[in-house]
Amino acid sequence: MGGLFSSTLLSEPWRSQPENNIDNLDFVQSYHPQKSSVSHLRIMLHGPVGAGKSSFINSIDSVLQGRVTGRALTDGISGKSFTKIYKTFKFRKHSFSHYSFVCNDIMGIERSANSGVHLDDIKLALGGHVGDDYKFVPGCPMKKGDPKYNQCPTLEDKVHILVSVIPANSVAILSDEVVKKLRDVRLAASEMGIPQFAILTKVDEACPDAKCDLKDTYRSKLLKELVEQFHVLLGIPRNCIFLVKNYETASSVDEETDKLILQALRQMISYGNDFLDNL
What we know:
Elements: H1 22-30, E1 41-46, H2 53-65, E2 87-89, E3 92-94, E4 97-98, E5 101-105, H3 119-126, E6 161-167, H4 176-191, E7 196-201, H5 203-206, H6 208-212, H7 221-234, E8 241-243, H8 255-278
Parallel strand pairs: 1-5, 1-6, 6-7, 7-8
Antiparallel strand pairs: 2-5, 3-4
Helix pairs in contact: 1-8, 3-4
């Protein structure tokens, strides 16, 4: 692949990009589930420690609010998961209303069996059994007697979209143990019929061309190869793997960063809505 320090721009984008953000933003703003029993679509993020899951939630919020926000707490020191609590994030639309989708963050996956989120906890969360404010215990899955265990989850409690979040510059160096865990979660979600996406974050760190100009993200040969490599690792369809730059260092929003985030978000919502319609 030639390393992560050089790249070649293709003559044409390998994935089309909208000219502006108007259509995608209008879609997100107007979306509402058609099922009367569901008031919001539930998107759950999972992935290795430090992948940018919480930052992606903040980035979605930043796009929708038109300013950089930070409601999901993040940490710049990698190694151990900063997220310890299962929490549902709603996105404010107006003074007294919210968007019709929510995001759930989860403790990061680690190589060791006794550290990071337990795979059983992720699977329980997929089925809607994990209540808000549950505190994850590394190496120890939730028990049915736990006060936060939801014995009878509704359709609204369950996850409707599973998103794997991976730093683009880490795809080539993911450990076998982490890949196996990601694949295990993917298979569990598949058994439940839950559609799955992947977000490759930090494209500006992985690709000099994207760092220079985000407009070139989907013209980058290097980033195309990373998408292909991640597709082979996990089996997620290529058209369900998206590239983004989170609002981690910026102090204001910009159109090109918004464009990548909104394009991914719209597809997640569309697939999640299809999932609900098929039930």
